[in-house]
Structures are given as structure tokens and as C-alpha cells.
Amino acid sequence: MDLTNPIYERLEAELEKLREMAKAAGAETWEDRKKAQTPQCRFGEGGICCRICSMGPCRITPKSPRGICGADAGAIAGRNYLRFTAGGCAAHSDHGREICHTLMSASPEGSYHVTDADKLLRLAKEWDIETEGRDIYDVAHDVGFTALSEYGKPFGTQRFVSRATEERQKVWEREGITPRAVDREITTAMHMTHMGNTADAEALVRQSLRTGLADGWGGSMTGTEFSDILFGTPLPNDTEADLGVLEKDMVNIIVHGHDPAMSEMVVTAAEDRDMIEYARSKGAKGINVAGLCCTANEVAMRHGVRMGGNFLQQEKAMLTGLVEMMAVDVQCIFPALGPLSECFHTKVVTTSPIARIPGTIFVQFNAETARQQGRDLVKMAIDNFENRDPAKIFVPQNKQKATVGYSCEGIKSRLDTVTNSFVDELDTYKPLIECIKSGVVRGAVAIVGCNNPKVRPDYAHIEIMKELLRNDIVIVATGCAAQAAAKAGLMDKAAKDLYCGEGLKRVCELAEIPPVLHMGSCVDISRMMLLATGIAKDWGIDVPQVPVVGCAPEWMSEKAVSIANYVVATGIDTYLGVEPQVSGSAEMMELITEGTRKMVGAGYIINTDCDQLVQAMIDGIEAKRTALGI
Ligand code: BF8
Ligand code: SF4
To answer: Does position 426 have pLDDT exceeding 90, yes or no?
Structure first.
């Protein structure tokens, strides 16, 4: 790996400056806390500490291979792994549920509206909901209610499962992992892992797959579909990324979290004429909204709102001294932001009862008053502009151009423009399939996930992406991985000339796309499942055969494990750069890398060395090509 890589030097130089700012302000950052936490507990790391009942905690060692109840390493690591998965499924799915409630509140005169009526009508048709001659909001409320019912339905399985390939549906049926009600799968996971229940690691892994599927083909897919209906389905548009999007002379508001209901209102309010005039009356040149984490992805994909940064940059944004307000919703929000805001003028506003954080201002958002609340937040930020401390300001310069908004619809819209060169149909993945078959593009990798202090932030993302591009492998990205790509300039259409092999470069030119396609936030990995499924269907093969793999080089959250479970269950090999916390059990390691292969035809490949990980991915894609005879 090239450590003098100019992308990385550029990013690192600014981070160093921000670390100095932290020191000068007496502020603590994750780097300090990481040091204080080192060394980390190796029982926890291996997943072999059990505190599921108060006879424990029990830890597995060579001298004590069983807990007091007799649970062995496989049972303990397996139960921890399933609970981890359930936590992730719950977070994604409850986010999806909230969006359904937001749709239930939508009305022509209310805060929220139906923006993509076509998508709503398509979904109504898919679910046999009457649309003929009906008011669009009546249809929306019926569709919303039906989706909400999926969370707790007493019988049957998730409706979205019927979108999977027939082969996948049969495999899930055969393995007994077709997801039932979302809440049922999470409850079953918690029940199975209660003291005195399942001790069989394979059964725990099987329920992990099922719980993951309830997320990917249930809660997350609901989150994506309903966000599109409410706020619009993303199509390609231009934006910028990295902390350099913060403006020295403007009121800077950062929206951070995942559920777009609040951030959409802030973005709208920041465009209100009277708000802009109010900001000017306070000496600012205007209002600048930027995003962090997946909220950034949501508003960038739909409105071109610029992306401030990803997970491990959230404190850095505040360290610039330029942020008047950080308005957060749910998930991936550092509790550290509360105490950190005491060292700066930034107001941190929490808006959901799901994420209450000491040291922040709590403004509970609700659908009825959301439009006005968005305006109130923007006003609060403007009023805070005069409190900036000039001595604590550092103006970052790094930012890169990015073209984002590649939903499945967005990808197809680009493929349609090159259709005549390959096939004469529209609305199909066939042009892409032709490119893969001919070898111009070798395959595709979905790069997803977080930052994790166990990995030099963004380094694995960027280096892996560059190597894949060099090998003519197209990349789709979501979450913090997508932002890493954007910050490195890999979502700039011009990046093809710097990083791509000849074949991929030609395709990028023809389709006018960047080599790394931004597909959205982490719930939008459901889009990736539909993309892989669409390719498989248009090709006439099943998903595990398609030269497509998944990769999470820097993952950290429970959501990531839930995702990894459904990606694998969907038949896509998943390459992990951080070890899942099960390594204390050889049985569990075997199950998640090889065992699932026997069940669903895919598994994890784990390697903490990103050079080796990317090589394994390239080999994996080439092996799939060979098996297809292409
Ligand atoms: O859901 S990639 S750090 S922001 S968990 Fe969080 Fe991870 Fe970022 Fe989005 Ni996803
Ligand atoms: Fe120990 Fe068993 Fe209780 Fe876990 S469930 S803490 S292994 S006694």
C-alpha cells in the first residue's frame, strides 16, 4: 500500500490541524478515548464473555471452557452474535417504521407530502391496494398502514420477499429462514438467547440470517421505499464532500443521523426567503446546511446538500469552530458531542426520544409541527452565529466534487442512455450485464459500512476502492464508505482517468458516471439487494452466481452485522476488514465463514489486512466469472 498517497496526505494534514484545535480548546476526542480504552478486553473481542444472567458474568478460558450453566464458547459467542444482529435489525427497522408513520401523517396542507406518486402507486399495485379513482393521500395512508402491519403480522412472511429471485425464495424456505414479522424475528432472537434456551451455535447463526433478512427485505427496504415516496427517489445530481463544505461567512447547520424526516424540514426551512434574510441581518452571507453520516447521504442524494463527513468526522466538524448547530436524529451519534459542545459555541439539538444525549438541547420533532420546528431550528442556529469565537476557528479547505443519487432508478436512467450500444430495451440491467460478460467490466463490489478506530479512518475504504477500479471492477457504495469515496474524489466523474482500468474507464465515459456510484445510506443497502436481484433476473441466473460481492472494510455497528447477515443470505459473499466478535469460538468462526455457504451459498471472508482483503475479492470475482464460463 502506498502510504504517501496524495489523497491520504491531504486528508491527514487537515485532521492533524483539527487535533491541534482540540488540544488548544481542552477538548477530548475519540483518539484520546481510544488510547484510554487500550488494551481492549479480549473476552469481549472474542465474544466469549456472557452476562445474559446474573449467575455470570462467565468468561471462557482453557481452564473454564463452560459458563456456570454449561454454555460453551459456541453458545456464548453465538448468542452474543445473534443479539448483535437483532440490535441492528431493530435500529434499521424502527427507522423504517418511523418513516411509515411520517407517511401516515402526510397531507396536502401538512408538513410532509407525497413526492414520488409513481413509486407509491407501483407499491400499491404490488400489494393489491386499490388505486383507481382514489385520492393519492388515501392510497398513501393505506400503503403506509399495510407496511406498518408488516412489523407485527401474526401470520405469513415479509411481503418484499416476493421481490427476490425465485431461487432465493426457495433457499430461504428450505433453510427455514424466510423472515416473518420484523418484530417477531427480533423477539425470537431475544427469546432464543435468554438464559436456558438455544445453546446450538448453528441454530443461532440460522436465526441471525433470518433476523438479518427481516431487516434487509423488511424494515430497511421499507425505510428506503417510503423515504423515496415522501422525499423523492434519488437521481444523479452534483454535490461536494468533506469538511471544506463548511462556510466561513455563513451560518453552518449540520444535520446528522439517519431518519430524513427532520433533516428534510431543516433543508426546506434554510431555503425560506425570510430565513435567508434573517441570517443576512445577523451578518452572515447566508445559511449553509451540510450533512454528517447517513443523514448526509439522504439529503445529498435527493437535494445535492453537501456532505460534511462520515462517522469519525463528527467531532472534527465541531472542532472547526464554524458550526452554529448540529441537529441530530437517530443512530451513530457520539454521546461525546454533548460535552464537546461545552468547549465550542455549537448548539447540539437532539430531536428524537430514541436518541437523548446529556449536554444537548432536546426538541422533540413531530409530524404535525415539523415544518415550523424546522424553521425554529434554523432561527436558533442563526441567532448563534454571533457567538462564534474567532480564536477557535479553523477553516478546512478539503472538499471534492461528487455526483451522487444512484438509486436503482438512477442507475437504470444512465444505462438507458447507452442502451443502443448494447441492447435495444429500456429499463433493464442488460447493458451492464453485457459489459460484465464481455469482460470490459470484471464485476461489481458493494462497499458499505462505517469507520472504526481499529482501522486508520477511511484508509481501507479508499485503498480497496482504488485497487478494484484499477482492476475494472465497478463499485457501488453506501453509508460512511460512500462518503470516504466522495472525500477521496472517487465520485467525481473525472476520477475515471486517474484510477480506472481501460475497460471501466470506457464504460464510465459512455454512461457518464463516476466509477464509484453512491447508492445512499445504510438502509439503502436494500437498493443494492434489488440491484443484485435485478441483475440476476435479467441475466437468468441466481444471485450467488453473479460476479458481485459485498465488502465492509471498516464496519463497527450492530446494524452492519444485521446487514452482513442479509447480504450473505441473499447469496452475496461479504468481505470484512474488522473481525466479528466471535473469534473466541472456532465453531462460530467456521459457521460464519463456511457454514452459511452450505445453507445460502455465501459467507464471510475476513481479513484485517486490506491488501489481502482486496486481492481475495478480486480472486472471488474472477472465480465467479470462471464458473459462469465468461
Ligand atoms: O447507518 S455506515 S457509522 S452512519 S452504521 Fe453509522 Fe456505520 Fe456510518 Fe449510517 Ni451505517
Ligand atoms: Fe454464565 Fe450461563 Fe448465565 Fe451466561 S447464561 S452468564 S454462561 S450462567
So the answer is: no
Q: What are phi and psi for residue 575, nearest 5 degrees? A: -100, 120
Cell of residue 257, nine digits: 443521523
Q: How far is it, in rounded angstroms, from Cα 267 to Cα 260? A: 10
Alpha carbon distance 71, 58 (integer Å): 9
Region 340-344: what's the mean pLDDT?
97
Average pLDDT over residues 492-519: 96
Was domain 243-392 assigned CATH 3.40.50.2030? yes
For position 422, what pLDDT does the model report?
Answer: 62
Atom of ligand 2 nearest to the CA of 53: 3
Q: For residue 418, report the distance from its CA to the centre of ligand 1, in Å.
A: 33
597 C-alpha to ligand 2 centroid (Å): 30
Q: How far apart are the C-alpha atoms of 590 and 593, rounded to whole Å?
A: 5
Please check the confidence at residue 350 and state whether its pLDDT lies above 90.
yes
Query: What is the C-alpha separation between 407 and 392, in angstroms, rounded?
Result: 40
Place of cell 437517530: 330
The answer to whether residue 420 scores a pLDDT higher than 80 is: no
Strands 287-292 and 251-256: parallel
Query: What is residue 477's three-state secondary structure?
Result: strand
Nearest to 89 by CA among 193, 220, 184: 220
**251 forms bridges with which residues in the sheet?**
287
- Closest listed ligand to the CA of 477: 1
Atom of ligand 1 nearest to the CA of 563: 10
Helices (H), 439-501: 459-470, 479-487, 495-499
Q: Which three cell numbers stand for residue 576?
A: 470484512
Q: Kind and range of the H or E element at 538?
A: helix 525-539
Indicate if ligand 2 lies below 6 Å from the C-beta of 197: no
Q: Is the pLDDT of residue 115 over 70?
A: yes
50-231 topology per CATH = Substrate Binding Domain Of Dnak; Chain:A; Domain 2 (1.20.1270)
Residues 6+ apart with CB under 8 A from 310: 292, 293, 296, 450, 451, 458, 479, 480, 483, 484, 487
Q: Where are the domains of the chain?
A: 50-231, 243-392, 401-628
Nearest CA to ligand 2 atom 4: 50
Phi first, then psi, for residue 14 (nearest 5°) are -70, -35
55 touches ligand 2 (CB under 6 Å): yes
Q: How far is Cα 522 from Cα 483, in angstroms, rounded to an integer? A: 12
Is there a contact between 550 and 628 (Cβ–Cβ < 8 Å)? no
CA distance 383 to 360: 17
Query: How many other CB atoms are there within 10 angstroms of residue 490's CB atom?
Result: 28
Beta-bridge mates of residue 446: 476, 550
Question: What is the pTM assigned to this prediction?
Answer: 0.97
Please state which CATH number belongs to domain 401-628. Answer: 3.40.50.2030
Give residue-wise pLDDT tens across range 508-546: 999 999 999 999 999 999 999 999 999 999 999 999 999
Alpha-carbon distance 517 to 486, whole Å?
Answer: 10
Q: At 256, phi and psi to the nearest 5?
A: -145, 140
pLDDT over 70 (residue 394): yes
Q: Is 50 in the pocket of ligand 2 (CB under 6 A)?
A: yes
